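Memo to structure team: turn this sequence into structure tokens by end of day. - J.P.
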Amino acid sequence: MKQVLVILLSLILFAGSALAESWLDQLDIPLAEGLVEDAAAGTVFETATGRVVVVEARGDVAATTVEQYYVRVLPELGWRAIGANRFLRDGEALTLAVTRGDGQTRVIFRLSPEG
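Reply from structure team:
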């Protein structure tokens, strides 16, 4: 019985760490499966009205799959859709620019103060 508990605990910890690795570093949103964040392409700074964050990710996944993923997941995290690939939450606006080229989908996440 003790071995079963140790195995279950190990699986839970492993699953938790795997989930933690699939979130964007500067934003509190998950990366769609198949995307990898390009940490060198990111920008973060504060303005008088709030933070501005630009993060880029890319991967070999269909652009429509990525868009559908975020339309489904972001409202679960408190984001309200206000247009195609545009969301609001707590005074911040999140825009996703999803493009496809050279066999890869590129997503630019732009977070800025609402307005």
